[in-house]
Amino acid sequence: MITFEDVTKRYRDGTVAVDGLSLEASTGAITVFVGPSGCGKTTSLRMINRMIDATSGRITLDGQDVREIDPPTLRRGIGYVIQQAGLFPHRKIVDNVATVPYLLGWSKKKARSRAMELLELVGLDPALAGRFPFQLSGGQQQRVGVARALAADPPVLLMDEPFSAVDPIVRASLQDELLRLQLELRKTIVFVTHDIDEAVKLGDTVAVMRVGGRLAQMAGPATLLTEPADDFVREFLGRDRGIRRLSFISAKEMRLSPSPSDLVIDEDGRALGWRTADGLAAYGTFNPETDSLRVALDAALLSPNGTAVAVDEEGRVRGVAGRDSIDKLLGEYAPPATGPAPGGSGGGSSSGAGDSEGAPA
Amino acid sequence: MNWLAGFFGDAAHWSGPDGIPARLLEHLEFSAAAFLIAALIAVPLGMLIGHTGRGALLVVIAANAARALPTLGLLVLVVLLAGVGTVLPVLIPLVVLAIPPILVNTYEGVRGVDADLRDAAYGMGLRGRQVLLQTLTPVALPLILLGLRLAAVQVVSTATVAAFVGLGGLGRFIIDGLATKTYADVIGGAVLVAALALAVQFAFLLLDRVAVSPGVRQIR
Ligand SMILES: Nc1ncnc2c1ncn2[C@@H]1O[C@H](COP(=O)(O)OP(=O)(O)OP(=O)(O)O)[C@@H](O)[C@H]1O
Ligand SMILES: [Mg+2]
């Protein structure tokens, strides 16, 4: 666990980048620092591995004050990933990944074989190992950056906007990859981003910071979406909070009906479309085992009759969920009314921003 | 052309203590000594100043002094101070001449390494000296080699002045040729100096190929 105890950072020019920050980042979880540009996210992150020293307050790592540890030793035990990957241009990919093992005095052979394992773990072709960084795409370089940070198997990983320099599609796949890795590795990750969608997608806990380096709210993503602490957080979360919250509700409990006769299914059990007078119409699918209520609702909206098709991993139809089933599940997770609601949503066009307990994320 | 044929065709020019091989060897000796001393001073100094940022003023002074410094004047001064007959009067001006390009380029190379890269190196847990030797230097190597090459070429060309103070080297052909109005020797000597400078240039290009990581050469 990483704890900040009343941590303040005042730069030499007088800028107070972080002001009295107290929070905990739980072991084995992803804690995201999010907030507008200049709010002190990077400064906070870099105080953990002492790339910056706090002016006052204490940061502890599993109970030990980081100031008691010599910085290079501390850093070798903490993975660090930055926006531009920061790979060493003069070293081959495999040696880039093996940087920390080499520093720790591993034999070249052991360090390299570990590096090869990691390249595979982050989804890179081992054939890239002999290349130099300039021969890789931005997304590939970023994966190498992650592999390098993980090479010596540190319990803690610090990531500073690691995916913000790549295009949205690559970014999404890197995010998915990180979540997949995390299921396996269970690292204590502190992740910095200014993108609230990324924060909500990746974070087990999200710490929203405001300019001046003060904590505005710290909560699970579902709670954050339903119960923003104040106008600043509400505005920062942006529109569609109600819809976005549905991402954290599993579609597992959706009541399915047998597929009706106007859903055309091929001999493998896969849907072909809805039969209409003009031929087959589009349909939307969701997998109740893995998808969220948001995906189910989206699937329903893609069908002309408002009915979502439930499928298994192989894409075989397991049943359908009509609006009534979706509505019922929506009702179960509706934010309960507890006294006067604290204002509408940021845009004021939708309601339902009342209090509620977030669904298990 | 005739003069060249006369100079290089003369068998007497190819042997003995004032033949081309002996003079070439002398020339290379002065040059190599001066170059090595300059490199041993200026490369570590440039690396250190580029890395720590302390002493940058020294680089600025060196760079400007280099432009203003009359090599021949310095040579005469050192002769007056140290006397004729030693190699010192030749070495000192050559070393002084060679230091600025090495110092300036090494400093610029190390200082100019991408701040994010330097940051990543520290972030991985490299210590200051490891950052300098394992990250900054390999990345700055093309510029460091450029500085060394400029210095080497300059030293090799300028070592001709050794002849002014009664020492050997290829300058002898030029000085003596002028004195005796043997213009074939003057031109022959000048051609040899130019060829040597080209050879040095070429040697450094080869060194660049071998020593600089392909990963660094590409991003330039
Ligand atoms: N070395 C420094 N000296 C003085 N002020 C600094 C320094 N580094 C950062 N700051 C200031 O501290 C504040 C917080 O900076 P920080 O880099 O932590 O922000 P950030 O939240 O990471 O922003 P971004 O999203 O733009 O990366 C900013 O006002 C910034 O200008
Ligand atoms: Mg930042």
From TrEMBL, chain A:
Domain called ABC transporter: residue spans: 2-236
Stretches of the chain forming a coiled coil according to its record: none
Alphabetized Pfam families for the sequence: ABC_tran
Gene Ontology MF, one: ATP binding
Residue ranges, compositional bias (Low complexity): 352-361
Keywords: ATP-binding, Nucleotide-binding, Transport
SMART domains: AAA
Stretches with biased composition (Gly residues): 341-351
EC numbers for this chain: 7.6.2.9
Region feature Disordered, mapped onto this chain: 328-361
Lineage: superkingdom: Bacteria
InterPro entries listed in its UniProt record: AAA+_ATPase (IPR003593), ABC_transporter-like_ATP-bd (IPR003439), ABC_transporter-like_CS (IPR017871), P-loop_NTPase (IPR027417)
Family, similarity comment: Belongs to the ABC transporter superfamily.
Protein name as catalogued: ABC-type quaternary amine transporter
Species for this entry: Microbispora bryophytorum
From TrEMBL, chain B:
Chief site of localization: membrane
Gene Ontology CC: plasma membrane
Cell compartments where the protein resides: Cell membrane; Membrane
Superkingdom per UniProt: Bacteria
Membrane topology recorded in Swiss-Prot or TrEMBL: Multi-pass membrane protein
ABC transmembrane type-1 domain: residues covered: 24-204
Gene: proW
One Pfam family linked to the record: BPD_transp_1
Family named by the database record: Belongs to the binding-protein-dependent transport system permease family.
GO biological process terms, semicolon-separated: glycine betaine transport; transmembrane transport
Keyword Secreted: no
Gene3D superfamilies with a match to the protein in the record: MetI-like (1.10.3720.10)
Keywords, sorted A to Z: Membrane, Transmembrane, Transmembrane helix, Transport
PANTHER family linked: GLYCINE BETAINE/L-PROLINE TRANSPORT SYSTEM PERMEASE PROTEIN PROW, POSSIBLE OSMOPROTECTANT (GLYCINE BETAINE_CARNITINE_CHOLINE_L-PROLINE) TRANSPORT INTEGRAL MEMBRANE PROTEIN ABC TRANSPORTER PROZ
Record field: transmembrane: 30-49, 131-150, 156-175, 187-207
Protein name per the record: Glycine/betaine ABC transporter permease
